[in-house]
Specification:
The chain is of the alpha+beta class and 125 residues long. The protein contains five helices and six strands. It has a single domain, classed as Nuclear Transport Factor 2, Chain: A. Strand 3 and strand 4 form a beta hairpin.
């Protein structure tokens, strides 16, 4: 499986709520970063820590969708561009994202999840 195929499989698994599918494309010691400004966010190391963080999403958001529109391969990296939508009882916020993932031996070892957080912050009040 190429890096882009692995990345596509991970996003497909996330959209389907398939935890095992997500974990299949991550290295055991994956390092994950997303802005602490929008919860759940921060730095996490290891599949267990990332899965625990993802399990926190329903505590902060009624729903969260991530719609990739472009996958760009750059050596060991895959850059994914798209739109993220977060919803809570105050409404919804849609913003662009660019995720940068580094792969080694077919597994994602590093994920930087950059997104437009300003609209989401307004919903958090």
């Amino acid at each position: 499986m190429t890096n882009i195929e692995a990345a596509r499989a991970g996003y497909k698994a996330f959209a389907a709520g398939d935890a095992e599918g997500m974990q299949r494309v991550w290295a055991d010691n994956i390092h994950w970063w997303s802005s602490e400004e929008v919860q759940p966010g921060g730095e996490f190391t290891g599949v267990g820590a990332v899965m625990q963080m993802l399990a926190e999403i329903p505590k902060h958001w009624t729903s969260m969708t991530v719609e990739p529109t472009e996958f760009i391969e750059a050596g060991d990296y895959v850059i994914v561009r798209g739109t993220q939508t977060l919803t809570n009882d105050k409404g919804s916020a849609e913003g662009k994202f660019a995720h940068i993932m580094k792969f080694q031996d077919g597994k994602c070892i590093d994920a930087e999840m950059h997104a437009d957080t300003a609209k989401a912050l307004k919903l958090r009040g």
